[in-house]
Design a protein that fits this description.
The chain has 1183 residues and is mainly α. Among the domains are: 6-154, Rossmann fold (3-Layer(aba) Sandwich); 172-373, Rossmann fold (3-Layer(aba) Sandwich); 377-437; 451-487 and 496-538; 761-857, Tetratricopeptide repeat domain (Serine Threonine Protein Phosphatase 5, Tetratricopeptide repeat, Alpha Horseshoe); 1073-1183, Alpha Horseshoe (Serine Threonine Protein Phosphatase 5, Tetratricopeptide repeat). The chain is built from 55 helices and 13 strands. The strands form three sheets. A five-stranded parallel β-sheet has the order 2-1-3-4-5, with helices on both faces. Helix 39 runs parallel beside helix 41, helix 45 (933-952) packs parallel to helix 47 (981-1000) and helix 50 packs antiparallel against helix 51 (1077-1097). The relative contact order is 0.03.
């Protein structure tokens, strides 16, 4: 706190409510005066508008010379509208913020103007007459605060929360300028009706163009309904903090925490537990919004609250949030219907913004309740404003004409009304020439600058305005003086000359335009602006700021944060001082030098990397990656010029962080460039310094990143190559240091990813080999430290992967053993930490895998029991946080599993119900995130499941409709990303489903068309990756489908040709991996199809030959995996096929008897299978 003379410090202004505990104010006045203080107490205030007003103002004005503003907090002093106390608090927070002492007399929350200032509670001494002793103890403390011997004790949790979230200070100036505000009562009426309507929309939108008074209305609403508005933010595109979405979310959360005690407890618990997470500036806004605002509010909603008490969050200038030219993330989050639905019904939003289509789109079509651009809304307010401001207007003989002219010429701008009134008050003679009134803001600004600078701007004015237009935030006057060489008196004289549209703010020592539209008009950005000779080119301002910053940089050897504006934004101004900075030798060389000073950012004369980060943010916001050459060119020159490898590595590390940031925000083009550039730097460094193990490890991580990118696009071969390179590096490193656990873990990650690629390609032996190596590493690590929960979790993951491979190969017992071991680990972990939601989700995934095994064994009831346990976990998680999209996806998948098992058990109505619940989740998710291709893919799966169940129920038309929705989604996805092989594979499956349903409907021609489209996709994929066994298998399926249709159409030769092609593929796969029982089963099915064709042709010996081969294969499969019901049922069908083509009666009966024995054994064992009833019918066996 600043030092003040004792005499000035002895002045105290007491602000209090006359309606609540006024006796405390009087007692405090008496006691402080006894201690030698001069106390101002407005005892005689009785009504607004009397002589007391002047006295009160005089009392407040004295605080400018020193002293204390003591605010007595009671419910009526902090929350009532039309509250004189709040006006006084607002004034004090603007003029004397460092000398405010709030004293809480009754439990209540502080007003927004001072929500970050710690209050001192004395409510335990009220009433004073009953608790005199305690009051006197507090009085001693209060005197110590006033004499600055002590500071008000701040709650440790409050300080810590502020340090982490760093809330932005309230802008009391916005309320302090409301003295002249008038009109707009219809806006307030609309807001109040909205607040009182229980079923009203959650968002109240106030829209309007520049200068229509949106911000003034927002500030006015804060003053008029303080009991409802508990968090506010005024966005400002000229202030990097106030337009930063993450900072805005932090600030809103902190305001709510200080005002809502129950929410505050929830927020502190989350933030304190994950402090580093919330200090990370790269965290995604959606994650931050969900975790800091939505989820704590959801939890609070379950406590006892008055549902009629609306809590309003007000955001002014929403269009100015975020980075210009990019998606407005804050608007998208506020407009997200699912987030709003998840939050308590008593949370509402008031939004002001320009009427931009993008904002309307991101607010999910939320209507504008108040449109300030509509003429009928404005004219009455304009007229009322003119009549009140221009008090002498009634004396004019042409009053009505003057008013009508002023209203008409304002067009839609309240700013015009305000400025014209200011001018007329200064020069009433203007009223004699209404025909000279300018038209709209373009006319006003043109007239204004013409009057002040009839010949155009002089050089000094161009300099200052260029600096102001180029600045990324308002410039301090001191900086302008240094750049221009002006003296303070000259600047004051210039400010008088330039007029009221450029203002000096004494408290912050900054120059700013009266309104954003002034800057936009000067630079030609304002719609309809015609600045002509008054147009300002920001490039000149950038040049001056760059020159000054560069000179300043050379003269200082050490830097401390916060950096001066000229240094922190030096990169921006150098870059923007030339349209092609890489071609300007001076700019280019200076930027390269700036990179050198910022990277690696250590040592004498070094700058923090935030200087380069600010430049990159500026570049990304204004340029497409494909069109930008300046920044990228400077990076290349820096790398060529830099001799220190540490600096190059620092650049790579910086670009990697930026890659994560922009990739998470959907800017794939810039993210891709950042990753590619950092990767090439790491490759160069590792080649030059092969002994640097840290850099080698970084290169391995980078290769894994490339693999992830390619895998997501379905480019499995490229992904495999990248993962192999990462693996080779980690193998080399771990051989050098066998006990480095971090490297061992990285090695395991590479193996794990290679296993995933091999599995996706159908190369199960290679996948198993990779997973087993990963398992060995995790076993080794868990032995080193059996208490390390992360290693134990990874061990569980590795066991699940082994289980997946065994399950895919049909080895159900081995798969079950692996899954049970993984489940045991997760059970042990969650028992140690019942609050760890990630482990609970993993536990659910283990249960689902075990359910899959029971289903494959035909134990449908056991499978359903396990699936229901997994479902219960996902229901519990999503109830805890309904906004967590990962959990919602998991819940959708759980409902799908329930649907599958119900369908398999013949419970089609229950299956349909489960599928519909899954579908509903995916529809909600995709409604708010249609750009998320993965979610759209999952939605297509849900539609396909609906089609499956309708097919099973015999509703073929409904099934076709569902499959078509699945198909439409996949066509859109493949059109958007034609190189994505995953989407192509899914599209082929969609065509497969369409073919099946047309075949079932008897439309064989349409079925054949669909199957051929399926086949064309699989032929294309097989050509792309001939070694991908999964794709080969699907190609075999497509040939089988075509063969089935041709057989039904009577085209036996064509059918035989197709079956033989399918058989060749399946034989190749079966010989490649004889242990893959699924592939062996596929091979038997193709042989069976050929046998049936020969049977249809009457060639029974050839038919029997095929069926005998099928029988041989199936007997082997059943012997190897007796629990694999698919093989057992196919064996029974094979015996019946032989029964039909065998002439020998003894053999026939033997086949029939054996088939019947198999069927009865399945029934006795309680086995369930989709084809079991068909088998029993053929054998005439009742259940």
């Amino acid at each position: 706190m600043p030092n003040q003379s004792n005499e000035r410090n002895k002045y105290v202004f007491i602000s209090y409510s006359h309606h609540e505990l006024p006796e405390v104010a009087r007692r405090l006045k008496t006691d402080l005066e006894a201690l030698g203080y001069e106390v101002f107490l407005d005892i005689d205030r009785i009504a607004a508008g009397g002589h007391w007003d002047a006295t009160l103002n005089e009392g407040l004005q004295r605080l400018k010379d020193g002293g204390w503003f003591v605010f007595l907090m009671t419910p009526s002093s902090v929350r009532q509208s039309h509250n004189f106390c709040l006006n006084e608090v607002t004034w004090a927070s603007y003029h004397t913020r460092d000398a405010i002492l709030p004293l809480r007399l009754v439990p209540c929350e502080p007003p927004l103007a001072i929500y970050t200032i710690q209050y001192y509670p004395i409510d335990d001494a009220i009433p004073i007459e009953e608790k005199e002793e305690r009051y006197l103890e507090h009085l001693k403390e209060i005197e110590a605060f006033l004499s600055r011997k002590k500071t008000v004790p701040v709650q440790d949790e409050r300080i810590r929360l502020k340090q982490i979230l760093q809330p932005m200070e309230f802008e009391p100036k916005r309320l302090a300028v409301l003295d002249r505000f008038m009109g707009r009562e219809w806006v307030l009426d609309g807001v109040k009706k909205w607040l009182q309507a229980p079923n009203a929309p959650r968002i109240f939108r106030i829209g309007g163009g520049p200068g229509t008074g949106k911000s003034a209305i927002a500030a006015w609403l804060v003053r008029e309904i303080p009991d409802s508005i508990r968090a506010i933010h005024f966005c400002d595109r000229n202030n990097t903090d106030k337009s930063n979405v993450n900072r805005i979310i932090h600030s809103i959360a902190c305001q709510l925490a200080f005002c809502l005690e129950d929410y505050g407890r929830e927020l502190k618990g989350k933030v304190f537990e994950n402090e580093k997470r919330y200090l990370n500036p790269t965290i995604q806004p959606q994650v931050l919004f969900e975790e800091l605002i939505a989820t704590p509010l959801v939890r609070v909603s379950r406590t006892q609250r008055n549902e009629n008490q609306q809590i309003v969050i007000l955001i002014d200038g929403l269009d100015e949030a975020g980075v210009p030219g990019r998606e407005n993330e804050l608007a998208r989050l506020i407009g997200d219907p699912e987030l709003q639905k998840a939050m308590p019904t008593w949370i509402r939003w008031i939004i002001t913004s320009r009427n931009e289509p993008l904002i309307t789109f991101q607010l999910q079509g939320t209507p504008i309740q108040i449109d300030l651009d509509e003429e009928e809304n404005q004219r009455a307010d304009f007229r009322a404003y003119y009549e009140k401001r221009l008090s002498d207007l009634h004396k004019e003989p042409m009053k009505e004409y003057l008013l009508e002219t002023l209203v008409n010429r304002a067009e839609r701008s309240f700013l015009y009304c305000e400025l014209m009134c200011d001018d007329i008050v200064r020069n009433p003679g203007m009223l004699r020439s209404p025909e000279k009134f300018p038209v709209g803001m373009n006319g006003y600004l043109s007239r204004f600058f013409s009057a002040h600078f009839p010949q155009g701007f002089d050089d000094r004015t161009i300099e200052i305005l260029s600096l102001m237009c180029a600045a990324v935030e308002p410039l301090k006057a001191d900086l302008i003086l240094k750049i221009t060489g002006m003296k303070k008196p000259e600047l004051k004289k210039w400010l008088r000359a330039v007029g009221s549209l450029v203002q000096y703010e004494e408290k912050t020592d900054t120059l700013r335009f009266y309104h954003a539209s002034v800057l936009e008009w000067l630079t030609g950005e304002l719609e309809g602006s015609q600045p002509d000779i008054y147009e300002i080119e920001p490039k000149e301002g950038h040049r001056m700021l760059a020159d000054y910053g560069w000179e300043y940089l050379q003269g200082v050897q050490e830097w401390e944060e916060p950096l001066d504006y000229a240094i922190e934004n030096l990169g921006i101004h150098l870059y923007a001082s030339n349209k092609e900075p890489e071609k300007d030798a001076t700019v280019r060389d200076r930027l390269v030098e700036l990179f050198k000073k910022s990277l690696p950012g250590e040592g004498k004369g070094r700058l923090p990397v935030k200087v380069i980060a600010a430049l990159l943010t500026y570049v990304v916001a204004r340029h497409k990656e494909s069109e930008e050459t300046g920044f990228k060119g400077i990076v290349d020159r820096f790398l060529k010029a830099e001799t220190q490898p540490e600096a190059k590595h620092a650049l790579a590390a910086f670009l990697h962080i930026c890659y994560d940031y922009y990739s998470a925000r959907g800017n794939a083009e810039w993210a891709r460039w950042m990753h590619q550039r950092q990767h090439s730097v790491l490759e160069e460094l590792v080649d030059a310094y092969p002994e640097n193990t840290g850099w080698k490890r970084d290169l391995s991580v980078s290769w894994n990143g490339i693999g992830d990118i390619e895998a997501k696009r379905g480019n499995l071969s490229q992904a495999r190559d990248a993962y192999e390179k990462a693996l080779a590096i980690m193998l080399e490193l771990t051989e050098k240091d066998l006990i480095n656990t971090a490297w061992l873990q990285d090695l395991g990650v590479s193996l794990y990813r290679i296993g995933d690629i091999e599995k996706a390609q159908g190369n199960l032996s290679q996948a198993q080999e990779a997973y087993e190596k990963y398992l060995a590493i995790m076993l080794k690590l868990s032995k080193i430290d059996p208490t390390n929960p992360e290693w134990l979790r990874d061990l569980s993951v590795s066991l699940n992967q082994i289980g997946d491979i065994e399950a895919k190969r049909g080895n159900l017992d081995q798969a079950s053993d692996a899954y049970e071991a993984a489940l045991a680990i997760m059970l042990e972990l969650i028992e140690k930490d019942l609050l760890n939601t990630v482990w609970f989700q993993d536990f659910g995934a283990c249960l689902n895998r075990i359910g899959d095994i029971e289903k494959a064994r035909g134990n449908f009831s056991e499978a359903r029991d396990v699936y229901e346990k997994a479902l219960a976990i996902m229901l519990k998680l999503t109830e805890k946080d309904p906004t967590n999209t990962d959990w919602l996806l998991g819940l959708s998948a759980s409902w799908n599993r329930i649907g599958v098992i119900e369908a398999a058990m013949g419970n089609l109505a229950q299956a349909r119900e489960a599928y519909e619940k899954s579908l509903a989740i995916m529809l909600e998710l995709t409604a708010k995130g249609q750009a998320n291709a993965d979610w759209m893919g999952d939605l297509s799966v849900s539609w396909s499941k609906i089609g499956d169940i309708e097919t099973a129920r015999g509703n073929l038309d409904q099934a076709r409709g569902a499959y078509e929705k699945d198909l439409v989604i996949m066509l859109e996805l493949t059109e958007k990303d034609p190189a994505n092989t995953n989407w192509k594979l899914d599209l082929s499956v969609s065509w497969d489903k369409i073919g099946d349903i047309e075949a079932a409907r008897g439309n064989l021609d349409q079925a054949l068309v669909a199957y051929e489209k399926q086949q064309n996709i699989m032929l294309e994929l097989a050509e792309i990756a001939p070694t991908n066994t999964d794709w080969k298998r699907y190609l075999g399926v497509s040939w089988n489908n075509i063969a089935d249709v041709e057989a039904k159409r009577g085209n036996i030769d064509r059918a035989l040709e197709a079956y033989n092609k399918s058989l060749a593929i399946r034989l190749e796969l079966a010989e490649k991996d004889p242990e893959n029982l699924r592939w062996q089963l596929d091979y038997s099915i193709s042989l069976s199809g050929i046998g049936k064709l020969y049977q249809q042709k009457g060639e029974f010996p050839r038919s029997k030959e095929c069926f005998l081969q099928v029988l041989d294969i199936l007997r082997t499969l059943v012997a190897k995996a007796p629990d694999m019901v698919d093989s057992t049922i196919e064996l029974a069908f094979a015996l019946l096929d032989l029964y039909q083509v065998t002439e020998n009666e003894y053999e026939k009966q033997a086949y029939h008897v054996e088939a019947a024995q198999i069927a009865k054994s399945l029934v006795d064992a309680g086995a369930q299978h989709r084809d079991l009833n068909t088998l029993l019918n053929r054998l005439s066996i009742d259940r």
